[in-house]
Amino acid sequence: MGWLSHVIDAGSEYRYSLAELRGSLFVSEGNKAAKHTQFWMLLALSSFIAAGGVVGDSTPAVIGAMIIAPLATPIYGVALATTIGDTKALRTSVLLLLGGIALNILIGVLVAALTLQRMPIDANPQIAGRTAPTLLDLGVAIAVGLAGSFAMARRDVSSIVAGVAIAISLVPVLAVVGITIGAGRFDLATGALILFLTNAAAIVVAGVLVFGGAHYFREAAEISPRLGRRARATIIIALIVLLIPLSGASVRTYLYQRYLGATRTAVDNWTNGTPWRVEGVNLINDDIVVTVVGPSATRDTTTLSNEIRDTVPDTVSVRLISIDGTETPL
């Protein structure tokens, strides 16, 4: 981590001390009442704005929710507590994060119950794009974790970067979890929750790597030898615990991206030279859904199904939906 340490430190005047970082990330230190009030108020507002933006397919509203969302505090609190081996701070940060997740989802459920009739779940791109993790999502989450923790450790980088970075990967996804639960679509809610957990794990891993590269565990050891002795073991255990599911999710995501590509190629071949047009090939939870537009007469799908199944196993559901609502399993 020598190069990482050099990038983060780059002169002691640019690096926050451990005491300063603890003060900004651990709500159990300093003015506890003010920190809790700020966190819960901003979280409630950002959750409501995000849920409203998702239901109404309003990208500006979703972006606005990202700007004010405070989820960076407990997420990076978990990463820092893991890095320095402070189990008490780790427990407090985890509990705060779990409470924030519950509130975010609950608000999504309530918003869904009041406004869901505005747009069908399956037709909402804000929802469809957040119910199945992709390799791009995982890569973005890792980049988010690196960017956010770097901003937390450096004085010359705005801390707003950390908050917005976290919100991009987490707040809208949690809103989708709540909205789909409120709509009774637990299959979609499960997919969105998996995406959230994958993103959160990737961000924590990146945060641990950056805070470790900044040598905060050494500073903790100077302050408390007990923390220093525990820091390295905590880092190793946390990385193993998080990297195992991340690796599994990455393999699954890679396979599904391969299946999506093969399906898209087969559908393009099937519609080539015909009046039919491909509207989309999407992964919705564990199903591949192909949407096409064409004449009302139904086409034979045997050739299409055979070509798809050359690559896609029978255990993966593939559905062809025409614009008139006709659904054909492939």
List keywords for this structure.
330 residues, alpha+beta, four-stranded mixed beta sheet, elongated
Main beta-sheet strand count, sense and barrel state: 4 strands, mixed
Radius of gyration: 23 Å
Which H/E pattern describes the elements?
HHHHHHHHHHHHEEHEE
Low-pLDDT regions = none
How would the global form be characterised? elongated
Beta-strand residue percentage: 5-15%
Largest sheet: spatial strand order: 1-2-3-4
Q: What topology emerges from the helices and strands here?
A:
Layout: H1 2-9, H2 18-25, H3 32-55, H4 59-68, H5 72-84, H6 87-115, H7 125-128, H8 135-153, H9 160-182, H10 186-213, H11 216-223, H12 225-271, E1 277-284, E2 287-293, H13 302-309, E3 318-322, E4 327-329
Parallel strand pairs: 2-3
Antiparallel strand pairs: 1-2, 3-4
Helix pairs in contact: 2-5, 3-4, 3-6, 3-9, 4-9, 5-6, 5-10, 6-9, 8-9, 8-10, 9-10, 10-12, 11-12, 12-13
Q: Care to describe what's here?
A:
With 330 residues, this protein is an alpha+beta fold. It is built from 13 helices and 4 strands. It has helices at 2-9, 18-25, 32-55, 59-68, 72-84, 87-115, 125-128, 135-153, 160-182, 186-213, 216-223, 225-271, 302-309, and strands spanning 277-284, 287-293, 318-322, 327-329. The chain has a 4-stranded mixed beta sheet with strand order 1-2-3-4, covered by helices on one side.
